[in-house]
């Protein structure tokens, strides 16, 4: 059946008689009508198609504090107890079994749930207070310690998921099951792109640190129009695969082909009214413009020496976290709406002291450089930087505990993240955990609360940015979430 030739003016009886598909045909007709209604152009109206890259909001719901977001996602779950949440009592009771009154029967993973004991493990790393705010930071993060007066720490974050895939999916999409739109896609859908030559949502992944899967669906558009999916930029010679013209195809030939293809798609759109037709055309055009804009944005060769002195020598090595942080600043300068950096490698079930040193060496200087670079260029005030993983780590050791070695299992009950710029309070700490670092005791924040707060800084009321799908209105924060006003400057 050629759906493109359906006459939308026929009645239901005519449709069933012509196609003989019974209830299945009726369902198909309903879907086609729904697709047509989703477009702002009637199938019989001869006018230009809407721009899929334009946000559905004519303007933010209220004046935004931030114009863009750089989300530094530490995949695997960094140990808050060895980085930001100092617990001297753990050191005092090192090796003792975790009290039942602290655990309170809460769920454990299968990796440590069958241990005969759960020996508490104090951090072997030293902590000290820094800055005017007096934030306590581990010796593992000396560069981060220098900028604590720029950071807003949230120490009372908690989540429902206890395993990586649902936990990461929850942080990216607001739901533990795959299929929902990612946060960057929601922002692209709501606000559109600020730079017509670059995607609104760009993803960068650190090389050589991938010890767990990072699926493309984590930055996918879900049920939103495909124009809003994240675009991954790679570190190789071709940052975006298949972007260049094939051998033997000139720019003029490519331009002529796109023009003819747009005409054919316009005819199909007038027939069917499917908004995905416009999305495909817009993506072809974006790819054509990106042939020039992406190489320019990714070319760091003209960055001055003092920039590389700031970010460190790894910034010259494409694909490292430092290099990706430098690219994030360049993309922020070019008004990319949402820039997501993934740095895997934080899943330290064993040999934590050695492995976390490596991870901190990767990110500490680069994060400091990014925040410092944004500030001195006047971009930090309207750029929200977020740092954190999908959950924290346990206060007890997974496996054998020794004087110099231990591991930590997944811990969703409490963990730390930080934010900078974008209208959040600098030099501020929100929330607290108990003296054993196992449960939140003050001002708990869940994932939906964090998402609602991030959207708020972009000028969006999280309850009003919705999309109708399968008969229900969906949003990033599902059916809950509260803006944490205490962290807003």
Output the keywords:
alpha/beta, Alkaline Phosphatase, subunit A, 13% strand, disordered N terminus, 14 helices, 16 strands
Structural write-up:
- The chain is of the alpha/beta class.
- It has 2 domains: 3-38, no CATH class; 68-246 and 266-487, Alkaline Phosphatase, subunit A (3-Layer(aba) Sandwich), CATH 3.40.720.10.
- The chain has 14 helices and 16 strands.
- The protein has an 8-stranded mixed sheet, sandwiched between helices. Strands 2-3 form a two-stranded antiparallel sheet.
- Helix 1 crosses helix 2 and helix 9 (251-272) runs antiparallel to helix 10.
- The longest helix is centred in the last third of the chain and has 25 residues, at 352-376.
- The radius of gyration is 25 Å and the shape is globular.
- The termini are far apart.
- Mean pLDDT is 87; it is low at 1-10 and 12-49.
Helices and strands in order, then pairings?
Blueprint: H1 12-19, H2 22-38, E1 68-73, H3 80-83, H4 88-92, H5 100-103, E2 127-130, E3 135-138, H6 142-145, E4 151-157, H7 164-173, H8 183-191, E5 201-205, E6 231-232, H9 251-272, H10 275-298, H11 305-311, H12 321-333, E7 338-342, H13 352-376, E8 383-388, E9 392-393, E10 410-411, E11 415-421, E12 428-430, E13 432-433, E14 440-442, H14 447-457, E15 467-469, E16 472-474
Parallel strand pairs: 1-7, 1-8, 4-12, 5-6, 5-7
Antiparallel strand pairs: 2-3, 4-11, 8-11, 9-10, 13-14, 15-16
Helix pairs in contact: 1-2, 9-10, 12-13
